[in-house]
Structure formats: structure tokens, C-alpha cells
């Protein structure tokens, strides 16, 4: 089929390539003229035959919103817009309503597979009406991995991105779990061959997984991760998962802890733990470390000046 692809970066560019290899005609647009087949969104729309299918693969939030708004004014009744970025499911519902006023369809697709997708295929989680999803099946069939799995029409508009959001929340929890296990193995001197221990778990264990394969690969490249700083960003889906859990009063302790661990990783020092240290020192005269790393005051330190708590609080 013919498909317009907007955003030809790491994900969009590789997806366009996989579609082309599968025999589809892809007209690509990117702000970078070196990557683009056309000079503007208007040119892209003019190059496509109606009814058009235009796949948006730009960062979630304002860039996606701006692109969908422009497409609303350029496309015609019967065309369909696909958002394959990591958008919030509530944005999908707004976009579908907005495009729907012009008779333009909307399908949201959560895409997983990262930089390996070109070769292995992309897992696709799709939300939208049957009519629109059905029309796009030839493209989905090419993009997805070979075999039965790797594709779901999860529900109406928003369901694809909601499924991808929860997938990413699970990803957070799994990564954190592997990371904590690795830290503990390294911290003790009981297991002396940590990389091989992880490698052995790749087969026959209950935790075998692609993430485990990638962990083994990372340790092969840098056995102590000495080249990395313990700092992890987040792109928003973990936060949205936790926010959705609060909205539905669903307890997500593991995923929430994994998200908070990333926030903690960005602090050179912890203001909250300074306060914990200060309070321990206040009520019990317990030792604290100074900002320079020296024990500054403590129960046994000269100069400890701790007012005794009221009788009732002891
Ligand atoms: O969708 C993905 C994998 O499934 C992305 O790699 C993911 O969005 C990365 O998220 P974060 O930056 O929050 O770790």
C-alpha cells in the first residue's frame, strides 16, 4: 500500500525502510531535508493518492499535536492519520475527535522494538475503529515481527497507546529488578562470576527475556558498567502509568518504585535524606556526615548538642 511517513528519525526512518522492503510505497517527510522525500507536509499530502494513510512518528506532546493539526487542514474526508509515537491516550481521543470533524480517521499505535525493529519487526498495539484498522493491515503485517504474536488491535481510539503505556511501565519494573539484582550480586563476594551468572540465566529460567539478553550484551561490552554514570532519564510513559494507576486506585508499588529510582538517580545528593539525617541527629544525637563526607556531629562526637526529647516522646 502507499503510506506517508512523517518523522524519519531512528524509529520512523527504520519503519519506513521496513515498509519499503516489504513492497510498500513510502513517501517520507522530515524537517531535515537530507532525510525527506518532499519539501513540506503539503507536498507529502499532494504526493499521496486518496484515501490517504499518513503515519506520524514525531515526539509525543506538542510536536505530535502540531502535526495532527496541520494534517487536519491538509487531508480530506476518508483519509486516516496514524500516530505511532509514544503519545498519551487522552491526546489520541482529542485528536480522533478533532480529525473526525472533517471525516478523517485516526488510529493510535504503540510501537515497541527500538533500534532492533528494522531487523526483527515491531510489536504493534493498535487502537481505533475496525474500518480504519482493517485498511491499514497490509502495513501492520509488514511492520510486525514474523509469526502469530507482536500485533494486537487492543480496542478503540487510545487503546493502543494505553497498552503501550502499561507495557513501558512493566519495562520499568523489569529493568529495575534486573538492575537491583546485578547491584546485589556485585556487592557481595559470594558470586565471583557475575556476568556468567546472568548469561546462564538466559536459558531454562523463569526470568529469561530480551531484557536479560540485552543486560548480558551490556556487561559483555563493559563488565562493570564503568563507562556509565548511574543516571537514568524517563520519557513520560512511566509517569503516565503511575498517574493512570492513581486515577483507577490500582496499587503499582514495583513500577512506582522503579520510576522514583530514576528520579533519585538524577540527584547528586538527596535533600530528603539530609532531612532524615538531621532529624536522627536532633532526636537521638545520631552521627551525620558533613557535606564534605566527614562525620560532623554525633552522639559520641565532641560538640554534640542534642536537646533531650520531652519525657513522653522518649
Ligand atoms: O518505548 C520504548 C521501548 O518500549 C522506549 O524505548 C521507551 O519510551 C523509553 O522510555 P523511557 O525513556 O521512559 O525509559
TrEMBL record:
The active site is at residue 164. Pfam families: 6PGD, NAD_binding_2. Keywords: Gluconate utilization, Oxidoreductase. GO terms for molecular function: NADP binding; phosphogluconate dehydrogenase (decarboxylating) activity. Residues 160-307 form the 6-phosphogluconate dehydrogenase C-terminal domain. PROSITE patterns: 3_HYDROXYISOBUT_DH, 6PGD. It comes from the Bacteria. GO terms for biological process: D-gluconate metabolic process; organic acid catabolic process; pentose-phosphate shunt. The keyword Oxidoreductase applies. InterPro entries: 3-OH-isobutyrate_DH-rel_CS (IPR002204), 6-PGluconate_DH-like_C_sf (IPR008927), 6DGDH_YqeC (IPR004849), 6PGD_dom2 (IPR013328), 6PGDH_C (IPR006114), 6PGDH_NADP-bd (IPR006115), 6PGdom_BS (IPR006184), HIBADH-related (IPR015815). Residues 288-314 are annotated as: Disordered. SUPFAM superfamilies: 6-phosphogluconate dehydrogenase C-terminal domain-like, NAD(P)-binding Rossmann-fold domains. The keyword Oxidoreductase applies. NCBIfam families: gnd_rel, PRK09599.1. Belongs to the HIBADH-related family. PANTHER family: 6-PHOSPHOGLUCONATE DEHYDROGENASE. This is Decarboxylating 6-phosphogluconate dehydrogenase. It comes from Microbispora triticiradicis.
